[in-house]
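fyi for ur records
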Amino acid sequence: MIPRYTLPEMHALWTDDAKYRTWTRVEVLATEGQARLGRVPAEALADIRQAPAPSAAAVAQQERERDHEILAFLAAYCAGLPEESARWVHLGMTSYDLVDTALGHTLARATDLVLTAATRLRAALTERAVEHWDTVCIGRTHGIHAEPTTFGHKLATFAFAVDRSVRRLRAAREAVAVGTISGSVGTYALIDPRVERYVCDALGLGVEPAPSQVVARDRHAQLVQALATLGACVEQIAVELRMLQRTEVREVEEPRTVAYQGSSAMPHKRNPTTCERLTGLARILRGHVGAVLEDVALWHERDLAHSPVERVVLPDALTVAHYQATAAADLIERMTVFPERMRAAVDATHGLVYSSVVLADLLEQGVEREKAYRLVQAAANHTVASGEDFGTALGAAGLDVGPLDPRRFLTHHTVIRKRLESLR
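which gave:
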């Protein structure tokens, strides 16, 4: 991912130097596991533990001579070891024992960063929902004024959506946090399964229960789909807030820095650029889903078709999701809300948004449903045509109804408020 959408803590996990440090850790752990079984001399283990991880430049130099990244890494790593010790490195292992076990460790750490950002977003939505629980605003369906609700209720729907994404991400983290050190075609022919267990326990990983030589790629597909779903939930928030920032609406405004400039030509502009950015990032995440699903089906016990895809898609998707969730949390925590504009929108249709409670009143009075509907609709049409207050039009039609007040729509609002407490 380009630097513009990359946060430092995520970037640090995906550099080549970081990768080779993790590979080195896996090799050291595997050697320790072998030594515990008496298969590696103590002197060799001491040397291997002390050998530093090779730099990305050193591995690149070796790869120019070998055209194989794992062999290049091993050559660079072993270059500083005594020959007698170097021969014990990678004992009984195949390339993807190293690559996939290290990848599982990195994916778990990267997913933890996304989970932290998503959890912060959930908390921000929850707290702002509580703050604005009684801030009356208009609910809209099909883009048209429907009935009064509250801004807190609106934010609560987003908070629960993000909460579901957090739970999906936790499940996906468990799915990808696995390793395999089982040798060629996964049969443990040249390595004891106890070595695998030792390494994976040390890294906080589960073990692929029936390895084929690689970790199953449906695990990675599950993760990217969870990231894309989180991205779609963030997009839902962003689209709503973009709509509410339109000039004629202006019920909220995203935070601005003192340096903010909205247009190169129009100095007055205050564009919803953060929300638009969040929307665009969601499109990137959805675009990665197809690629990881294509990676699930490999030839026989393995092929290498997945490798170029996941070298791009996995760090890209995690980096984008981390940036997007972090930016969304910043937005929610600092956005400005205009309650007076929200109330003005409720009143903008001269009371038409109360038509459903008027209809309910007539039905309770015993008026036949079709007749009641037509009477209320006729009064509503008169208000639309004349601009006359809806209550006045109802009175002129001889209809006796209750008060036209937003609180009539919020009788059971406390039920949802109590549910929201579960997220705090």
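Residues 256 and 406 are 32 Å apart (CA to CA). thats all i got for now
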